[in-house]
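User: Please predict the structure of the protein below. I'd like the answer in structure-token form so I can feed it into my own downstream comparison script.

Assistant: Understood. Taking the following sequence of 136 residues as input:
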Amino acid sequence: MTRQHDSMIHPKIEDLLERVDSKFSLVTLGAYRARQINAYFNQLGEGLGHMIPPQVSSTARKPLSIAFEEIAVDKIVKVARPDYDAMEAEAAEMFGDLPVGDLNVDEMASDDSSDAGDSSTDDTIVATDATEDSAE
């Protein structure tokens, strides 16, 4: 009796490609989910519990194999991100137009650095030095 060997990858690539629109999408989705699964297994002993556990019961040990099995049973699906302009228009509709200042990020950084020299901690250090001199 001949035994049919399991393929190198189970589920088959052809089955996985039916669930996404391209090979690139499959690779991206699988890799992203495999990283999440890996992070879940790494944080198990820490008791944090903020990662999503694997969604299928699997004998596979590797996170990518588990991710592909999840994709095959439609536990993980690709969701298209909304267009940024559409999200911005929706936010403006919900909250109204928010005033946008003319501040430049570089200007804000230079304002913060110029304030650092005039901080009260410098005055405190000077006052501490002065009190030490007067105590001697």
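That's the full token string. Residues 118-136 have pLDDT under 50 and may be disordered.
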